[in-house]
Amino acid sequence: MKLVPEGTQAPAPFKPDDYTSYSLTTTTRRLQLWEFGYLPQWGYPWRQLHLALEGHVVVITGPQGLLGRFVLEKYVVPDELVLVSNRLRARTPGRS
After folding, report:
1. In whole angstroms, what is the distance from residue 20 CA to residue 31 CA?
2. How far is CA 1 from CA 22, 44, 51, 56, 76, in A?
3. Residue 72 DSSP code
4. Could you read off the pLDDT tens digit of each residue along the chain, which spans 96 residues?
5. Is-contact 26 76, C-beta < 8 A?
6. 55, 62, 73: which is closest to 31 by C-alpha?
7. How far is CA 22 from CA 39, 48, 52, 53, 83, in A?
C-alpha cells in the first residue's frame, strides 16, 4: 500500500515490485494503519471511519478528519474494501 500525501496526484496503481513501509490491518471491529508492520500509526472502530474512492485511491477519514489517502496492493480491490467498510459500519452498535 502506498500513502498518497494530500494535495498530490495519485501514483500509478500498485506494482508487485513496489516497496512500502505501510500496511492496513482489518478485523470485523476495526481498521488499523501500521508502519513497518510493528509501529501502530492509528486504529479506529469501523463506526468512526468513512472510506471513499478517488479513482483508484482509497480516502479514509475519521473523527479528526483525513487519516490518509492510499493506493492499495495489487490483489486488494478498493471498491470491495469500501463496500465492506460500509457494511461493517452499518451493523456496529452505537454507529454515528
Report:
1. 18
2. 6, 18, 15, 12, 9
3. P
4. 788 888 888 777 766 666 678 889 988 899 999 998 899 999 999 999 999 999 889 999 999 999 999 988 777 788 888 998 999 888 876 644
5. no
6. 62
7. 9, 21, 19, 19, 22
